[in-house]
Amino acid sequence: MIERDAMPPRPWHRVQGTIDASTMWYAVMRKRERGVFIGTLVLRHTDHHALLLRRGWEEVAPHAIQAPRREAPSG
């Protein structure tokens, strides 16, 4: 089982947000810079969100960033 507060394995970084952050209000955005992706968490439907989209950032679907499920140990 994966602990919710466990840090993701390298090279990944935890996406920081408020305790009530949901994909209804927030979007995870990414942009490729110098061969790597940079990312940020932004409120949807705001001027900042629109600006990032105009500058080539893209939204990342929630299912693409969730932690992989691990199978329960047998026995």
How would you characterize this protein structure?
- This protein has 75 residues and is α+β, with helices and mostly antiparallel strands.
- It has one domain (1-6, 22-75).
- The protein has two helices and three strands.
- It has helices spanning 47-54, 62-65, and strands at 26-33, 36-43, 58-59.
- A three-stranded antiparallel beta sheet has the order 2-1-3, with helices on one face.
- A hairpin with a 2-residue loop joins strand 1 (26-33) and strand 2 (36-43).
In short:
By secondary structure, the protein is an alpha+beta fold. It has helices spanning 47-54, 62-65; strands spanning 26-33, 36-43, 58-59.
Observed structural traits:
alpha+beta; 75 residues; 2 helices; 3-stranded antiparallel sheet; globular; single chain
Morphology call? globular
Q: Beta fraction of the residues? A: 15-25%
> Span between N and C termini?
15 Å
Overall residue-averaged pLDDT value: 78
Q: Number of domains in the coordinates? A: 1
Structural class: alpha+beta
List the helices and strands and how they pair.
Elements: E1 26-33, E2 36-43, H1 47-54, E3 58-59, H2 62-65
Antiparallel strand pairs: 1-2, 1-3
